[in-house]
Every structure is written in C-alpha cells, then in structure tokens.
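Posting here for the record, re: zinc ion.
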Amino acid sequence: IDQPNVITCKAMVAWEAGKDLVMEEVEVSPPQPLEIRVKVICTSLCRTDITAWESQAIFPRIFGHEASGIVESVGEGVTEFVKGDHVLTVFTGECKTCKHCESKKSNMCQVLGLERRGVMHSDQGTRFSVKGKPVYHYCAVSSFSEYTVVHSGCAVKVSPQAPLEKICLLSCGVAAGLGAAWNVADISEGSIVVIFGLGTVGLAVAQGAKLRGASQIIGVDINPEKYEKAKCFGVTDFLNPNEYNEPIQQVIKRISGGGTDYSFECIGNTGMVTTALQSCCDGWGLTVTLGVPKTNPEIASHYSAFLSGKTLKGSLFGGWKPKSDLPSLVNKYMNREIQVDEFITHNLPFEDINKAFTLMREGKCLRCVIHM
Ligand code: APR
Ligand code: ZN
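Prediction output follows.
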C-alpha cells in the first residue's frame, strides 16, 4: 500500500493581520483518518478571507476557502474519494448524520460546520508547518497552498468535465448568492428585490432573482463602477446612497411602491441590515443577511419592523447542503443555466495573490481567480 508522505510545497502564509502574505515552503502532513489531501488547482479570493485576515488574531495562517482541486491522497476510512477525483472545497461541511444534516430545514452541520479556531475538526490540530512551526488553517480549507488537507466531509466530488478554473466560484460566493435567492428567500415571479452590495455575492443574488422572474431588481452600492457589470446579472435600478440627501430606504420605498418584497444584505455592514429591513414592505417583507461583518456585530432595529410583519432571516452558504446540492449546481453551470464566468474579472498566478487582495480592497474586481 502507498502510504502518503509529508509534502513540501509553496503556500502563501499570513504572518500578521493586514500584512502581505509571504510565499513560504510549507510542510503538509498526510491526511489523517477521514481526511483527504488535495492539490489545489484554483482558488478565488472572497471578501471573507480579507475580513478574517484584517480582523482576526490567529497567525501564522493560510487563508483561502473558495477553491477547486484534485485529490492527491486519502486518509484511513475514506471511501468516497480516490486519488484523481475533482473536488470543490467547502467551508461548511456535511457529515450527513447529525440532526441538522438529517433535517431538510438546515445546512448547519453540527460536526463539520464553520471552523473558527484555525484547526482541523477531527483533532483540533493543524496539518501545516513552516520550519517546524505550526501554521493555522482557515475555515478548515486553507486553499492558498499548493496542497491542503481537508476533512472528506468538507469536499464535494464534481464532474471531471467541469472547468476547475471557473467552478471554484461555486464553492462559496456565487453559490451563496444563488442559494439565498432560491432556498432562503424563495423569490417568487414578479417580485421586487433590493440588494445591498454589488460584489460577487450581491450579483449572484441578482442572478438568482432574475432567474426566478423578479420584475425589479434594485442594486445599492457606493461604488458606481459596479453598475455596468450589475446590469448583466439583472440589476434594473442602481442607487448610490452618496448621491441622495434622504435616507436610501426612503428612495427604495418610493421606487418600489411602498417597500420591496425582499431585501438582501451583501456588504457585511450591520447598519445596512437595519436599512435593508426598513426597505422591505410591511406584511411579508423579508430581509436576508449574507454579509459577514468585521466590526460592530450587533444589529439594531425598532421592534415596529416586526410588529408590521417583516421577517429578518440569516443564511450561511445560501442554505445549500454542500455534498447533496453542489454537484447539481455545477451541472446547471455546465448546461449554461447559470452564469459563473462573468464574475471573473481577473486571473492571476499564485505568486501575485497580494495583488488580488489590493484589487478587492480597492473595489476594482469581482472575483480574482488565482491559478496555482
Ligand atoms: N453601502 C453600499 N455598498 C457598499 C457599502 C455601503 N456602505 N460598503 C461597501 N459596499 C459595496 C462595495 O462597494 C462592494 O461592491 O459592497 C460590495 C461588497 O462586495 P465585495 O467586497 O466584492 O464582497 P463579496 O465577496 O461580494 O462579499 C460580500 O458577503 O460573504 C460575505 O464576507 C462577505 O461580507 C461580505 C459580503
Ligand atoms: Zn452534519
């Protein structure tokens, strides 16, 4: 039997909050029981990587969670994957046996859910080291490395025909937006929708709303450069809050005839959650949150919003159960039922990953795909 060995490869390591990543030779342990080691092919930069890199305290660390790759080796007890399988990594796994995995109402796996401490689910250890010093993981994925180890429940096997350099976007942002529109909000035909934040996540919501036949899709963003791209995903009206003297929710109420059916927060700004709630209509107005705030995690709202029948609903990964649902989303892409390529504004080699951070922080990109 082939026993997998330690691999030495290149990884972009974050040593300090907010400081450029540094390319290092890292040692990647063999996969432990129920884990797989993956050769990362492409990883795209998501805003949440930046938020965590700027604001969290766990270092040194390898970020990256939106990725595609090929299985290099499998740990003991893995029956679902073999070497050579094409996979998407996922930051929230599916164990298929916990109460939430068994429920149709949730994708909040209690065993392989969002990992916040920078370690592996199974033993709270890390699989990376630089010169003998452990390096922490991010969301149990850590795709800013040529090889990474993930739990087999945090990877999804996909068709080998699907282009890995495109479908990596379905491992987080684009899937999260589509799922928020379809699974969480369940937008109905003819609806009026407002989306706060026209990055990849917000524009994926727009695409989902358009495919459901929404009649008006209002996009709110402070960066006017987002408008052209937004049109191609179905946004019909563009509002820049900086161009109005009145609160933007008043403008939205006016142009939507009393408030929208749905509003989506895709910025990561809790103040905007309040604005989104104020922008939807009485009775059935539904606000869905997708953003991940860096600061001020508390949400403020006057209870009158709820007395008038509005609903505030959270979401993670668009309500998708990754293993059960992602392969069909990849097939939808292959059948040209959903757009993914259009979100890719830049392709960069691995060593230029810091450029991707700069582009995103300056609001100059949707998704940068990093080719390993
Ligand atoms: N008002 C309106 N728009 C804003 C504001 C604001 N105060 N602040 C930022 N924006 C816009 C930006 O101009 C940008 O177009 O929000 C958009 C955010 O998009 P990206 O930075 O590209 O982020 P994205 O990857 O789409 O993620 C959005 O979802 O998954 C979470 O952590 C992620 O919180 C983030 C959110
Ligand atoms: Zn589970």
